[in-house]
Design brief:
By secondary structure, this protein is α+β, with helices and mostly antiparallel strands. The protein has three domains: 183 residues, 2-Layer Sandwich (Alpha-Beta Plaits), CATH 3.30.70.270; 73 residues, no CATH class; 40 residues, no CATH class. The chain contains ten helices and 14 strands. The strands form five sheets. The protein has a four-stranded antiparallel β-sheet. Strand 2 and strand 3 form a beta hairpin. Helix 6 packs antiparallel against helix 9. The radius of gyration is 23 Å and the shape is flat. The two termini are 37 Å apart. About 10% of the residues have low confidence.
């Protein structure tokens, strides 16, 4: 795990008064990624004025394109393409099998690494006058009405990134395609859909046996709540058993909610693109927990454009 980054100059041996514990992460292909637990360092690191883009806003923007074709580009080891200032390196020291190392490149696990990486890639794309695209850290998507158009946009974007010093692997470039995944979401004709592998994973889950497992299940399905009508009402029995004041009890009500939400996930609706025809109105749906606005068609011209308000609502729901 240490040999490859050391041979590439990503890390090197050091002597430092600082030290953080390692926290290896298993990759999807089964290999281990060297990461370090920088929670203590993160607590004393000053904030940055720069900010990451909002994923929900990126999804709305991509929806609005209603594109027919897509291509995605995932920069290989983007963090490791960015040198770490020499005077900062001692603070990032860690120990592996009794030997102390530090990073020469931007490490994973430090709280500002994603923001810095996103900003540098964004600057490179702007400087190179890249075609219209959306970017979230090292993930980039381009779109168009034909495969040829998207191919040329992707080719131009890749060339700009290569000239800026980033590495692009062929296996990390997807498309042109009519259907593609970006930001963990399946996209087709500007519509957001739950990926098949996510549906299979959720529907294969067994009923929870304690509060922690219930919270894990709710976490797995919560990201997709916008695809499920009356989501909050359906899962309210599951939230009841996670409350600190309640003992864990999995009864018929919880089992019914568990089965129903899995069925809803399996048949979830696609979202978008944003409608510009009939306006919408809000109807309050009273659940056992709170009121959730639901959107219904309304005669054209009766109300103003409610899309900004509903976007704020959805953004808040994502954080619940």
């Amino acid at each position: 795990m240490i040999q490859e980054p050391e041979s590439q100059g990503v890390v090197n041996k050091t002597h430092s008064p600082f030290n953080s514990p390692i926290w290896p992460v298993r990759k999807s292909e089964g290999e281990w990624r060297l990461t370090v637990d920088y929670r203590a360092l993160n607590e004393v690191t000053p904030p940055l004025s720069a900010a990451m883009p909002d994923m929900l806003e990126l999804q709305y923007e991509l929806e609005s394109k209603a594109a027919k074709w897509y291509a995605t580009i995932d920069i290989a080891n983007a963090f490791f393409s960015i040198p770490l200032a020499a005077e900062c390196r001692p603070q990032f020291a860690f120990t592996w099998r009794g030997v102390q190392y530090t990073w020469n490149r931007l490490p994973q696990g430090w709280k500002h690494s994603p923001t810095i990486c996103h900003g540098l890639i964004q600057t490179a794309l702007e400087k190179g006058e890249a075609p219209e695209h959306l970017q979230y850290i090292d993930d980039i998507i381009v779109w168009g009405n034909t495969a040829a158009e998207v191919f040329e946009k992707g080719k131009e974007t890749i060339q700009i990134l290569l000239e800026a010093g980033f590495t692009i692997r062929k296996s990390k470039v997807k498309g042109p395609a009519r259907e593609i995944q970006f930001l963990g979401v399946k996209w087709q004709d500007g519509r957001r859909q739950i990926p098949t592998d996510v549906i299979n994973k959720i529907t294969a889950m067994s009923p929870p046996t304690n509060k922690k497992e219930t919270q894990a299940f709710l976490g797995a399905i919560g990201f997709w709540r916008m695809h499920i009508p009356e989501y909050s009402q359906i899962v309210s029995p599951l939230y009841l058993v996670t409350r600190k004041i309640n003992h864990f009890h999995w009864g018929p009500e919880q089992q019914q909610a568990f089965a129903q939400i899995k069925q809803e996930i399996a048949h979830a609706v696609a979202l978008g693109p944003v409608r510009t025809g009939p306006e919408v109105k809000k109807r309050a749906l009273l659940s056992s927990r709170e009121q959730w606005p639901v959107l219904e068609p309304l005669a054209e011209g009766a109300w103003g454009d409610l899309r900004p308000a509903t976007r704020i609502l959805e953004s808040k729901l994502q954080r619940v």
